[in-house]
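Model it.
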Amino acid sequence: MPASATQSGGAGLPAAHSAPPTLGAEEEFLLVDAETLVPVDAAERVLDVHHRLHPKGAVTVPQRELLSSMIETTSPVCAGLPELRAEVSAARERLVEAAAKAGCRVLAHGTAARQAPPRTPTEAPHYRDVAGLYRLLAQGTETCGCHIHVGVPDREAAVHALDHVRPWLPVLLALSANSPYEHGVDTGFASWRTMVLSRWPTTQIPPYFTDAADYDATHRRLFATGVLPERARNAYWLARPSAHVPTLEVRVADVMPTVREVAAQAGLTRALVVTALRERAAGRVPAPVPAHDVAAALWTAARYGLGGSLVHPESGTAVLAGEAVAALLAHVGEALADLGDEEEVTAVVRDLLHRGEPARRQRAAARGQAPGDVGEWGVVG
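Modeled.
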């Protein structure tokens, strides 16, 4: 949805000895009834309580989202994964506290698992524009994701990194998939959120861009067609250069239940960007993988998560999910090691491959094979 307020606190330089790129994370959550766990229009109440508990300026405050049953937290700029973990944990704790005092709870599900009445769009000006343009699409998009920002030197570097990262977006999705249910129905997908978003113009795999001028010209053409809202500063692609700060924003992941999974997603994303910047410094240009090939890989990841086949980002062939994940780890292995993130990230990835992505754990909870039911599973705090 909106671009993050996160600002870049350092250049994403390619050399192994350079300062690591900065990080930021945005998380979208559902607000649910404290007893029934059905989504409720509680965002304004929660924001009011949060502002009283934590005056603006003291901490990074939550933000409105598209629907009034949703709310977003945004981390400050972080130097590394330990700081990011601490900030994400603190933001979640503050949000849970405010929600409790407002009579509701916070749920980390990519879509609403339980049936609820139609939601009300938020009254923020941008979201009024969105609701006015997209109508029923907006009312039916009760989806929550996790957006990772990685600092880059400039806009040209961001577009180069985008071209490099785009074939790997389906693997990042498979690791985070957390939306198998919608309104009481098992969709058969690991990430139904991805399917819901695919109905929107541009909320998909971005095209391959030759440079920043190509990106900006494409955005202007889209805006001129009328498929983007009046106040939109950017298209809604699943990865994009930020419109107002020097970061690459990767928006493919579903919101995840645990902070350690958020940190691992951030670590993999930053390592992909660092790898891309090193490729750029070496004069190597990313292969222009056709958009329909990456879109097919994204659909496969949304359908199966880690529980079936994925499309190998380099060969383009169907492989077991573990093989595609291993290819990602090999691709970013040097960057992960140089950043000091290898041990933490690989431990989380191994755990995901063993226990399954969050969607599989949601289903296990629904079948009574895990603690709690599908509603309780994923409740933050």
